[in-house]
Write a structure and sequence with these properties.
Belongs to the XseA family. The chain is an alpha/beta fold. Helices cover 44% and strands 22% of the residues. The strands form 3 sheets. The chain has a 5-stranded mixed beta barrel. A 5-stranded parallel sheet has the order 7-6-8-9-10, with helices on both faces. A 4-stranded antiparallel sheet has the order 12-11-13-14, with no helix packed on it. The chain starts with 5 loop residues before the first helix and ends in an 8-residue tail after the last strand.
Length: 399
């Protein structure tokens, strides 16, 4: 009996499986578990049913073609081949295409992207910009050959032919269409050529409308400084641009109605406002006319001097009160001044001289003690009507 090593056995099994045509092109239905996205871009997961499981690998080249994000618990159909990973001696399913089971791939991707953008707040009402009341120019992003352009032009010309319409023609489906739509949005915002933008196309399948679900298109709509009206598909068709735009129109014609104010309606409004203003002015004039008449009939205007007589009498009364208060105040102050004058007079030394007293000075200094003078010193004696000099002959203590 021949003895084989492990590598030879694994290689032999690998060749057996590789030679089986059924295993080289196979579709497997199962539920995703243990999903892992490696930094290399390869995906590793396990497909399982209620009884068994199989290891599964999606290499980067195939993973880049998957439009939805695989998640644990998701039911899928994996297309690929069964092979052997010789290093571990394990067989695996190598996936070339992964399809959601029971729901289309685009539908699943649509729901996943919608949820992602909603969580980021792109659909919040607070970010919606109001449409201008009287736009001068409307930008249009659509195909130059479709019925959308005809509908918008027709409605706009009927409502107000003075509004300028500016077309940026783009492909609305197929390869490169999303990039053209994004470029158109950026062009209008960069050059500020219009007051509002209508973007849209006619109805179709989800594949036909897919450019308006493109993530770059949706984010560019959100960043637009110019208000955007989305008119994509029919009334029952909803794309992600409908949720992120400032207003959704069920049809292109309705979008034109939203953006272009009807000229006749505006003229009617102007006439209505003119009539309201005229009536308000008339009411105000009548009100002030009545007030003027009432004032003219008032006794104040007929006999104004009577009102002045009363005021004059009040002034005279106040003046008498002021005079009385001033007289009383002056009398009180004069009496106080007399009392102070009498006190000052009692304290005046010259008053004492009038009563027979005298004051003695030595060298212009008042002598009020015998200790300040000596015998033979010259002194000056002041009396009521003058002074005279004397010489000290004797000094005696006592009173």
């Amino acid at each position: 009996m021949t003895i084989y090593n492990v590598s030879e056995i694994n290689n032999y099994i690998y060749n057996l499986i590789s030679a089986d045509n059924i295993l080289q092109k196979i579709m497997v239905r199962g539920e995703i578990s243990n999903f892992k996205l490696h930094t290399s871009g390869h995906c590793y997961l396990t497909l399982k049913d209620d009884k068994s499981a199989i290891k599964t690998v999606v290499f980067r080249r195939a993973a880049q073609k998957i439009k939805f994000r695989p998640e644990n618990g998701m039911k899928v159909i994996a297309c690929g081949n069964i092979g052997v990973y010789e290093r571990d001696g394990a067989y695996q399913l190598y996936v070339s295409q992964l399809i959601p089971d029971g729901v289309g791939e685009l539908n699943l991707y649509y729901e996943q992207l919608k949820k992602k953008l909603a969580n980021e707040g792109l659909f919040e009402e607070i970010y919606k910009k109001p449409l201008p009341l009287y736009p001068k120019c409307i930008g249009i992003i659509t195909s130059k050959t479709g019925a959308v352009l005809h509908d918008i032009f027709h409605v706009a010309s009927l409502r107000n032919p003075t509004v300028k319409l500016l077309l940026y023609p783009v492909k609305v489906q197929g390869q490169g269409s999303a990039e053209e739509i994004t470029a158109a949005l950026k062009f209008f915002n960069k050059h500020k050529l219009c007051d509002v933008i209508i973007m849209g196309r006619g109805g179709g399948s989800i594949e036909d409308l897919w450019s308006f679900n493109d993530e770059d298109v949706v984010r560019t709509v959100f960043k637009s400084k110019i208000p955007i009206v989305s008119a994509v598909g029919h009334e029952t068709d909803y794309t992600l641009t409908d949720f992120v735009s400032d207003m959704r129109a069920a049809t292109p014609s309705q979008a034109a109605e939203f953006c272009v104010p009807a000229r006749e309606e505006q003229l009617q409004k102007i006439e209505l406002y003119r009539t309201k203003i005229y009536n308000l002015v008339c009411q105000q004039l009548q009100y002030y006319r009545e007030r003027l008449n009432n004032c003219q009939q008032s006794h104040v205007f007929k006999q104004p001097y009577k009102l002045l007589d009363t005021k004059y009498q009040c002034i005279d009364t106040l003046q008498l009160k002021i005079n009385d208060i001033c007289d009383k105040y002056i009398t009180e102050k004069k009496h106080s001044l007399d009392i102070l004058a009498e006190k000052l007079l009692l304290l005046d030394p010259h008053a004492a001289l009038q009563r027979g007293y005298s004051m003695i000075y030595k060298d212009k200094q008042l002598v009020n003690s015998i200790k300040k003078i000596k015998k033979t010193e010259q002194i000056q004696i002041n009396v009521s009507d003058g002074f005279f000099s004397a010489t000290v002959d004797e000094i005696m203590e006592g009173k």
